[in-house]
C-alpha cells in the first residue's frame, strides 16, 4: 500500500473507516461523515467536538496503560482521526473458538481495563465484544465514538450491561464464565466495595431494561442530531 492511499473498510452510523499508511505505519483513518439532515453549523460543531473528545480520551487511556490504538493525527475541523492499526480479530468473531484459559485471560484483562477507565471517570458508551480486538496475547478496546467523561455510576453500569448483553446474544454458553472473570479483574482495580455497588447498579439496569434502552436511544439520537 502506498503512503496516503485509502482503502475503504466499513461505515458506521457516524463515520467511515479506511486502511492507510501514515508516516510509514499501517493505520486506520476514521472520518466523521457530514450529515445533510443536521443544521450545517451544528453538524460542524458536533463533528469537531466528538473528534476532539474521542482523540483526547484514547490518548488519556494510553497514558493510563490501557490497550487502545495510538493516535497519530487529529484534524477536528474535518472530523478526521488517524490511529494505529491493530492486527487481530474482534472478540465477537473468535470468542467461541478460544481455549478456556484464553477466555479467562481476556475476561480478566477487559475487567481490569474497564475498571481503570471508570476509575478515571471515563465511560466507553458502547462496550461490547465487537469493540474489542484480540491481538497476540493482548486484548484491545476500540471505537470510542460514544465515550465521555462522567462520575455517574450509571454510565459505568451501562458499559457493563452492554458488554454482558453482547456476550449473551452471541455466546450465551460463555456468558457466566466470561463475566465472572471480568468482575474478578474489575475488582482487582476498583476494590470490592465499589464493585459490589456497580454490580447492584447493573442488576438494577437489567430490571429497568426498557428505561435503559430508551436512555441509550436518546443518547444516540442526541449524538446524531446535535
How would you explain this protein's 3D organization?
Helices cover 51% and strands 20% of the residues. It has 226 residues and is of the alpha+beta class. It folds into two domains: 7-84, Phosphorylase Kinase, domain 1 (2-Layer Sandwich), CATH 3.30.200; 89-215, Transferase(Phosphotransferase), domain 1. A hairpin with a 3-residue loop joins β1 and β2. α5 (175-190) packs across α6 (192-207). The radius of gyration is 18 Å and the shape is globular. It starts with 6 loop residues before the first strand and ends with a helix.
Provide the succession of SSEs: EEEHEEEHHEEEEHHHH
Report how far apart the termini are.
37 Å
Q: What's the CATH first level of the largest domain?
A: Mainly Alpha
The number of E-state strands comes to: 10
Number of domains: 2
Please state the structural category.
alpha+beta
Assign the CATH superfamily of the largest domain.
Answer: Transferase(Phosphotransferase) domain 1
In percent, how helical is the residue content? 40-55%
Shape: globular
List strands and helices in order, with pairings.
Layout: E1 7-11, E2 15-22, E3 25-32, H1 40-63, E4 71-75, E5 80-84, E6 89-90, H2 91-94, H3 100-119, E7 122-123, E8 132-135, E9 138-141, E10 148-149, H4 153-170, H5 175-190, H6 192-207, H7 209-225
Antiparallel strand pairs: 1-2, 2-3, 3-5, 4-5, 6-8, 7-10, 8-9
